[in-house]
Design a protein that fits this description.
With 254 residues, the protein is α/β, with parallel strands linked by helices. Helix content is 38%, strand content 15%. The chain is built from 10 helices and 9 strands. It has a 6-stranded parallel β-sheet, sandwiched between helices. The chain has a 3-stranded antiparallel β-sheet with strand order 5-4-6. Helix 7 (113-117) links the parallel strand 2 (102-107) and strand 3 (122-124). Helix 1 (2-14) crosses helix 10 (239-253), helix 3 packs across helix 4 (60-68) and helix 6 runs parallel beside helix 10. The protein is globular. The relative contact order is 0.20. The structure holds adenosine-5-diphosphoribose (APR).
Amino acid sequence: MESSLDAAARCLLEARYAIALTGAGLSVESGIPPFRGPNGLWTKYGEPPMNGYERFLADPRKAWEERLSPSGPMRELWQALSGAEPNPGHRALAELEDMDIVRATITQNVDNLHRVAGSRRLLEIHGNATLIRCIQCITRFERDEIDYAMLPPRCPRCDGLLKSDTVSFGEPIPTDVLTACGEEADHADCMIVAGTSATVYPAAAFPIAIAERGGDLIEVNPYPSELTALCRVTLTGPAGEVLPALVERIRALK
Ligand code: APR
C-alpha cells in the first residue's frame, strides 16, 4: 500500500486536470448498502425492473404514492439515506478539491453526502434524493418547497410533471448534468475511481475514455472492478481509510 499510495499521490500531483468518479462504495462506511456484491441491495432483492421511468410516465400518481411510502429495496435505501452522514472518504475528496488536486467530482450516488462533506464542483449524474425535478423545464426544487397535497405534484414554474431528481432506470440522464460530466471527463488526464463496480453507463464510459486517451486511473476499492485492468494504480481498501491516507501522502510530497 505504501508504494501504491506514493504512486497515486505522484500521479495526482503531476496531473494537468484530475477529477473523481464515485459510486455506492463511497457511502458504505456511512451505513448505506451498495447495490451489487455480497451486501448489495440488488443481490438481496434482485435487480429492479429496467423500465422504472416508463412506469412513472404511465402512472405518475402511483409512482408518487410508491415514492412517498416505499417498500422493499427502496424502503431500505431511503431509510439508510435518511440517517447517513459523510465519512472520511467524502471529506477527503472535498479536501483534495480545496487543495486544487481534484477539479470536479462526478458521483453516481443520490445520497447528498458529497455535498454535505463540502464538495463544490459536484456533478450528481444519477440525481439527488433530496431534490425534486421538473421533467419539462429541468428545474430542481428542495423537497420541502413542493406541495404534495395533489399527486402527482406539478412544477410551480411551468406546470410540468415533477418527479424525484433521482434518475430512474430507463430514464435519460438530464442533459445539463450529462453535458457537464462529459466536459469534465474530456478535460481530464487523471481520474480517481472510488467505490464503483463501473458496470452502469454512461458513468462507466468516462474512465474508459480517459484511459484510452492515455490518462491515468487510480482505483480505490476493496475488491477488483470492471476497471481494475485499466488502472495505473489500484489502492485496495475501504475508501474511508484509503482516501484520507492519500491526502496525507500528497501533503507530504507537496
Ligand atoms: N470503499 C470503497 N469501495 C467499496 C467499499 C468501501 N468501503 N465497499 C464496497 N465497495 C465497492 C464494491 O467492491 C463495488 O465495486 O463499491 C462498489 C459498489 O458497486 P455497486 O454496488 O455496483 O455501486 P455503483 O457502482 O455505484 O452502481 C452504479 O447502479 O444500481 C445503479 O443507480 C445505481 O448509481 C448506481 C449504479
